[in-house]
């Protein structure tokens, strides 16, 4: 049914979908391609908290263009590679700059990050990391490799990690000063 390009993960609370609307209408309704009102469609797809903040911005300013382009400007950026510079310093692509428009603000669709909790980390590991770890263990077992062992040996704990380990393993009575 035409080509579709997704920017971002379909499991994410924010992603973009660009597709050939004219071809979709041709397949669904038999509308000749040259008669289609819309050729391509760019959709912003939001869920949960991200959708809430987008609606809040829309209801505050009553400006759909401002809200839409502010979201796009926050989450999508096309640049031209400059080999001698870091990626963050690469110049915005001229065509993308034209599409976004001059002096566009960006709209962050989140609140302040939640404070760290072990429970939050465990949920993240369970959702994002565990399937890959399980896959690697099965590959190691099936092939006699040691990817998991190598990864664990090469892992470096930061000061933050060490602090969390201490917090989680020190008995409460030892943390209280008398």
UniProtKB/TrEMBL annotation:
Keywords: Initiation factor, Protein biosynthesis. Residues 1-151 form the Replication initiation protein-like C-terminal domain. InterPro entries: REP-like_C. Pfam families: Rep_trans (PF02486). GO terms for molecular function: translation initiation factor activity. This is Replication initiation factor.
